[in-house]
Amino acid sequence: MSTPIALIDCNNYYVSCERAFDASLAGVPVIVLSNNDGCAIARSAEAKALGIKMGDPIHHLRDMVRQHGIQVRSSNYALYGDMQRRVIAACEPFARDFEIYSIDETFLDLAGFENRDLVAHAHAMRAQVQQWTTIPTCVGIAETKTLAKLANAAAKKDPRFDGVADLRDDSTRRDVMRSFAVADVWGVGGATSRKLTDLGIHTAGALRDMPMKQARAVGTVVLERLVAELRGVPSNAVEAVEPRRKGMAVTRSFGTPICDFEQLMGALSQYALRAGEKLRSHGLVAARLTAFFHTNKHKPDRPQYGASRMVTLHPMTNDSFELIAAARRAAEKAWRDGYAYTKAGIMLDDLLPEDERPRTLFEEDTAKRDRLMDALDAINGKFGTWTAVTASQGFKREWKMRSEMRSPAWTTDITQVPVVQA
């Protein structure tokens, strides 16, 4: 018998994080905006009921915001990331291992807990998460990840499950799969969904009953494995070790368009500094850096230009100063005067663990620079991001993203911790 897997999913996660420290947001419509306060990326149940859709631009919602008293917040990723850590800490006693799937979803390996009432076990876990963080959750339990995702969706949408759906029971599983649209099955993309619909396969149950050879013919081995998972045959277990990253990126839109090269370099320097910090936190080095920037693609009546240039990092490195120098070389090759740039970014590719990087014949001793990077990370970790920065970032930073409605850093900045007066 397969080891049961659970998927715990935080409901309306970004909104729930905002509500954790602001009681005035409870029971009222709330939306959280994307980077640069562009569009809605999270909505409370009350906001969804008003018809606000994911990705709706905020400038299209102004009248609705005023009419219905909708509370609007800028995204606060420092808060959301720290709250994720607290959610996982609350879940740890209830599972052998866990795998973070996204910022609001975590797979749990329930090996060793099979003899318990897993529905009651999951309710106890939900109660502990809510007690520790105030964040509401739903849990799906099954033999495979695909079924656990389906169970979680059922737990969230079907009131009879009361927030926990266990699909290990065959009759319950069949009942749920009979009404679950094939397009909503985890791993079924738009093109595959259309192919399946043309074949008369409209539900998860019909997909489960699809012949394996036909599944491979329609969607390669990926769809074949998915069908197997819907039948309760796991294709991959919970991964306690994070898969090796092949690349990473730091990109942002600007609060104000940039027409000056040194201002652009201020932004790219900050992104390269952050990219180096991320590399070091994962114990990685990069072989290639790409810098890119472009104008506003949504305003075709204005002059348009976008470019990217790649620079080889030799030797491979995670030194932020080396990355900033590489970003400047790339940006100088791509820059053109006379345009108003609205977004830029840094991408790193061909990542390797630092102790596996190839050595060069005339490589310099990097001990001093390594200590400098460690000190830089320690200062910014203790006193807040961008406490210590390079001069190339500048001081005014007119290019900073708009975040006019961002909540305080309730849990990561000692100066912004809530104060209770009695």
Report the CATH topology name of the largest domain: Alpha-Beta Plaits
Helix content estimate: 25-40%
Dominant shape: globular
Q: What class do helices, strands and sheet pairing give?
A: alpha+beta
Unreliable spans are none
- According to DSSP, the number of beta strands is 13
SSE blueprint and pairings:
Blueprint: E1 5-10, H1 13-20, E2 30-33, E3 40-43, H2 45-49, H3 62-68, E4 71-74, H4 77-91, E5 97-102, E6 105-109, H5 118-133, E7 137-142, H6 145-157, E8 164-166, H7 170-178, H8 190-198, H9 204-208, H10 212-230, E9 247-258, H11 261-281, E10 284-295, E11 306-317, H12 320-334, E12 341-349, E13 352-353, H13 367-383
Parallel strand pairs: 2-4, 7-8
Antiparallel strand pairs: 1-6, 1-7, 2-3, 5-6, 9-12, 10-11, 10-12, 10-13
Helix pairs in contact: 4-5, 11-12
Q: Can you describe what's shown?
A:
- Its EC number is 2.7.7.7.
- Residues 5-189 form the UmuC domain.
- This is DNA-directed DNA polymerase.
- Belongs to the DNA polymerase type-Y family.
- It is an enzyme of class 2 (transferase).
- The protein is of the alpha+beta class and 422 residues long.
- The protein folds into three domains: 1-179, Reverse transcriptase/Diguanylate cyclase domain (Alpha-Beta Plaits); 180-243, DNA polymerase, domain 1; 247-393, Dna Ligase, domain 1, CATH 3.30.1490.100.
- Helices cover 38% and strands 20% of the residues.
- It has helices spanning 13-20, 45-49, 62-68, 77-91, 118-133, 145-157, 170-178, 190-198, 204-208, 212-230, 261-281, 320-334, 367-383; strands at 5-10, 30-33, 40-43, 71-74, 97-102, 105-109, 137-142, 164-166, 247-258, 284-295, 306-317, 341-349, 352-353.
- A five-stranded mixed beta sheet has the order 5-6-1-7-8. Strands 9, 10, 11, 12 and 13 form a five-stranded antiparallel beta sheet that branches.
- The radius of gyration is 24 Å and the shape is globular.
